[in-house]
Write a structure and sequence with these properties.
By secondary structure, this protein is of the alpha/beta class. The chain is built from 13 helices and 15 strands.
C-alpha cells in the first residue's frame, strides 16, 4: 500500500471531525441538532438578494474566465474604500490580494513566512487551522493564554514570556473564534507594543469585525499604523456567503519591512491562478450596495446570544462567559472530572445520547480549550431551546450517575 506523506498524518480539523459520527446517526434516521459549525446559511440566514443578483449578472456579463491573480482591481478598490471608511486606513490596491476564503490567505501567508523550526504565537484557544497549517509547514504553534475569568482576554504578560528568537509572528483573532471575545483598544495596543519591541509580525484576523453585540471592533492596523502587519478578512460571515469562499489579505508595510514576504505571497497567488471570478464581481456589489442586512443579523444574533448565555448558566455542571462578538459560545464543563475522560468524550456522549452536536474545546487548544466545548448561537430560538433542553437532561442524568 502506498503511504501518505508524513506531513498529512497529523492533520485533524475538530470542527468537521465531529460530523463523521453525526452522519452515521443521520444515516440511521436520527435527527441531530447541530450547533457545531459557523455557517449562518445552515440555519435561517440567507445571502442578501442584491448579492445573489450580482453573482448571476456577472455570469451574463461574461466574467466566467480567470480573474487576475490578485483579484479584480474594482474589488480591491472597494476593499480599500471600506478600510478607509471603517478604520481610517489608507491602502492601495497593490496592498490587497483576494483569496479563496481566509483559509487560503492563511495557507499562502504562512507558506510565505515560516521556515522549519519557526514559532507562531496563537491565542489559546484558537481557530484550528492556525495550529494545523503552522505544523504542516514544519513550524511550531505556541499558544498564549487568554483568561476565561476576564472574558477570554489575552494575557499580554504570557505573550511577552513566550517570545524568543524563533518567534516569527503573533496572531490576534478579534472578535475571537471560538470564545466570542472582543478585544478593547488597550489590549490590542499592548500586544502591538510587545510585537514591535521584539521585531515580530502581527497577524490580525478580523473576519467577524462587524458582528459585535456591545461596543465596537477596532482594526489592529488602525491602532498601529506604523507597525508591519497583515490583516485577514473576508465576506463569508458578515455578507452571508460562506460557500462562495471569498476572503482577502491586506499588507501594512509602512517602511517596506515586509515587502519580501508580500512579494513571496503574491508569487504564490499567481501560482494558484485566482479566486472565483464571478463571486468576486458579486463582492463589489456587496460592498457598494445596501448594508441593511448586517444590523438585522446582529440584532437577531444578540437575542440568541442572550438566550444561550442564560440557558447554559442555568444548567448544573456548565458555565459560560458572555460572548461579545462573532457567533460562538464556549462553555466550561464544570463537572467533567470523574464523569468523562475528557471534553471529546463529553461531546461524543452528548451526540450519541441526546443527539446534539457541538465541538470539543481541546480541538481549539489542548491546553486552554480543554474541558470546554464550542457551540454556535446561529439557530432559531426554538431549535436552541430544544438543544439546551436535551443538554440539560443529559447533564442531569450523567452527573447523577
Amino acid at each position: 500500500m502506498i503511504s501518505p506523506s508524513e506531513k498529512s498524518r497529523g492533520i485533524s480539523y475538530a470542527i468537521r471531525e465531529v460530523l463523521i459520527p453525526a452522519r452515521k446517526l443521520e444515516g440511521n434516521g436520527i435527527k441531530v441538532l447541530k450547533l457545531n459549525i459557523g455557517d449562518p446559511i445552515a440555519y435561517d440566514f440567507d445571502t442578501p438578494r442584491h448579492i445573489k443578483d450580482a453573482l448571476y449578472q456577472a455570469t451574463l456579463d461574461g466574467y466566467n474566465g480567470y480573474a487576475p491573480s490578485e483579484g479584480y482591481e474594482e474589488l480591491r478598490e472597494e476593499i480599500a474604500k471600506r478600510e478607509k471608511r471603517r478604520n481610517g486606513m489608507d491602502y492601495g490596491i497593490n496592498d490587497i490580494c483576494v483569496t479563496t476564503g481566509v483559509t487560503e490567505a492563511l495557507q499562502m501567508f504562512l507558506a510565505s513566512t515560516l521556515n522549519h523550526g519557526d514559532e507562531l504565537l496563537v491565542p489559546g484557544p484558537t481557530y484550528p487551522p492556525y495550529n494545523l497549517i503552522t505544523s504542516f509547514y514544519g513550524a511550531k504553534p505556541i499558544a498564549y493564554a487568554t483568561l476565561e475569568e476576564e472574558n477570554w482576554q489575552p494575557d499580554v504578560d504570557d505573550v511577552r514570556k513566550k517570545i524568543n528568537e524563533r518567534t516569527k509572528a503573533v496572531v490576534i483573532i478579534n472578535p475571537n473564534n471560538p470564545t466570542g471575545a472582543l478585544y478593547p483598544k488597550k489590549v490590542i495596543k499592548e500586544i502591538v507594543d510587545v510585537a514591535a519591541e521584539n521585531d515580530i509580525l502581527i497577524i490580525s484576523d478580523e473576519i467577524y469585525d462587524d458582528i459585535v453585540f456591545e461596543g465596537r471592533q477596532y482594526a489592529t492596523a488602525s491602532l498601529a499604523k506604523d507597525t508591519p502587519m497583515i490583516t485577514f478578512n473576508g465576506f463569508s460571515k458578515v455578507y452571508l456567503v460562506p460557500g462562495w469562499r471569498m476572503g482577502y489579505v491586506i499588507f501594512n508595510s509602512p517602511d517596506g519591512e515586509i515587502d519580501l514576504i508580500k512579494d513571496a505571497f503574491f508569487r504564490l497567488a499567481r501560482s494558484r491562478l485566482c479566486a472565483n471570478s464571478v463571486a468576486q464581481r458579486a463582492m463589489i456589489e456587496a460592498l457598494r450596495g445596501s448594508q441593511k442586512h448586517i444590523g438585522e443579523m446582529v440584532s437577531k444574533l444578540r437575542k440568541r446570544r442572550d438566550y444561550a448565555y442564560k440557558r447554559i448558566n442555568e444548567i448544573d455542571g456548565l458555565s459560560t462567559t458572555k460572548p461579545q462578538g462573532a457567533f460562538y459560545i464556549f462553555p466550561k464543563i464544570e463537572s467533567i472530572d470523574g464523569t468523562w475522560k475528557d471534553d471529546k468524550e463529553f461531546v461524543l456522549d452528548l451526540l450519541n445520547e441526546v443527539h446534539v452536536l457541538v465541538v470539543h474545546g481541546s480541538g481549539f487548544s489542548p491546553t486552554y480549550g480543554k474541558n470546554h466545548f464550542r457551540a454556535v448561537i446561529l439557530p432559531p430560538l426554538p431549535v436552541m431551546e430544544e438543544a439546551f433542553n436535551r443538554i440539560d437532561d443529559f447533564m442531569k442524568n450523567r452527573v447523577k450517575k
